Amino acid sequence: MPKVKVPRKSTTVDMTAMCDVAFLLLTFFMLTSNFVAKEPIVVAIPASVAEIKIPERDIATVLIDKDGKVFFGLDTQQDRKELLKTLGLAFSVTPAFDEKELNEFSKISSSGVPIEKMHAFLALKPDARDSKDAAIGIPADSINNQFKEWMKNARKINPKLRLAIKADQQTPYKVIKRVMTTLQDIKENRYNLITSLKEVHK
Amino acid sequence: MAEMQVEDKGKKGKKPKQKKHATRVDLTPMVDLGFLLITFFMLTTSMLKPQTMELIVPTKDDVKEEDQNKVKASQAITVLLGKENRLYYYFGAQENGVDPELVLTDYSSSGIRQMLVKRNAEVVNNVNQLKLDKAAKKISEEDYNKKLSEYKAAKSAPTIMIKATDDSNYKNLVDILDEMNICSIARYAIVDITPYDLGLIDKKTPPAK
């Protein structure tokens, strides 16, 4: 019996279609993504059934960790730069922050350094800033309430700003109360408490 | 296909005949790169936006003593957030020197929620019906919102005063605000705790061993 001749076929597959798909997906992800902002501390947020989504722009985030350290972040680089500039003036920091320091600051999404230590902090290398020792928190007690100044100036820079409070589950109520009283003092009375989604069990 | 036909002009010139080159490019590395980037973007993005709970508190200077409308004792429920996730509540206020009964409960659905739903039964029923209607598309979004606020403002609805002790934590606060949401209670306020309330808790708590 004569053998059936199997025609030899080349094993190269046309990659064009696959390439198309890959880049289509890539484009999709690039357009829909907003990056996870780096936060100086890990915060375990509580869950709630609230379904309101947080707006994308004009957000000032107040981060509070479980030891009661307060961090403050604005959403655009321009605003952050402006913030440090006005803060420098408000606390009459000498020497004033130079352009390089302002630029460095604008890259940090959320910061919590007392103003007197800001020079030293900005001089650090970016990866050294994430260390635990660098995350001091903004003083927000009755003796030294720098947080109030931060918020006041942020409001001046962007009047449309909305306040989001992102606090750890285990934060003592005392700290929350202190922050809220500070905010009430400067007539900030609308907050968004950031929570994760939870189902209602009936 | 990523292939172009290179025409062979076939001129019988003196020029040496150019070899036919297929311009087919191997796209495998490009696909690799594409998927690598996709992976990167998938891992670094947060697709889920966090939820928020809106909270509006009065500013300090617009609350004057005489402006404060006193809450009717019959409708007032005071909720006290204690330490170690303990939760207490009492109805009304001190009357003729008799302390209201302080009840210990918890944050579960069989705890505080049961009590709130019971006290707010009328509103809860109305709101549930409304939600069903909305799900069945019987009413428009506008009507829904209008009716919702109408129902929530019902006179029979209780007024909750949330008083957190310094020993409670943020989760407790969010939990209790969440219960307000679930039980469709529109009238609630976060109030500073008074020594009287602390005293009530002390009396209720068994002495430490």
Q: What are its keywords?
A:
heterodimer, A: alpha/beta, 6 strands, 14% strand, B: 209 residues, Nucleotidyltransferase, domain 5, five-stranded mixed beta sheet, 6 helices, elongated
Overall CATH architecture of the domain at 73-120 and 157-203 in chain B: 2-Layer Sandwich
Shape of chain B: elongated
Mean pLDDT of chain A: 81
- Give the SSE order of chain B as H and E letters: HEEEEHHHEHEH
Please state the CA-atom Rg of chain A, rounded to the nearest Å. 24 Å
Rg of chain B from C-alpha positions? 33 Å
End-to-end gap of chain B:
82 Å
Report on this model:
The complex is a heterodimer of chains A (202) and B (209). Chain A has 202 residues and is of the alpha/beta class. Chain A has one domain (47-197). Chain A is built from 6 helices and 6 strands. Chain A has helices at 16-32, 77-90, 99-106, 118-123, 146-157, 173-185; strands at residues 47-48, 52-53, 59-64, 70-74, 162-167, 190-197. A 5-stranded mixed β-sheet of chain A has the order 1-6-5-3-4. In chain A, helix 2 packs across helix 3. The longest helix of chain A has 17 residues, at 16-32. By secondary structure, chain B is an alpha/beta fold. Chain B has a domain at 73-120 and 157-203: 2-Layer Sandwich (Nucleotidyltransferase, domain 5). In chain B, 36% of the residues lie in helices and 14% in strands. Chain B has 6 helices and 6 strands. Chain B has helices spanning 28-44, 112-119, 121-135, 141-152, 170-182, 195-204, and strands at residues 51-56, 76-81, 87-91, 103-105, 159-164, 188-191. In chain B, strand 2 and strand 3 (87-91) form a beta hairpin. The longest helix of chain B has 17 residues, at 28-44. Chain B is elongated and about 120 Å long. The termini of chain B are far apart. The model of chain B has no long low-confidence stretch (mean pLDDT 77). The interface between A and B is large, with 56 and 47 residues. Strand 6 of chain A pairs antiparallel with strand 1 of chain B.
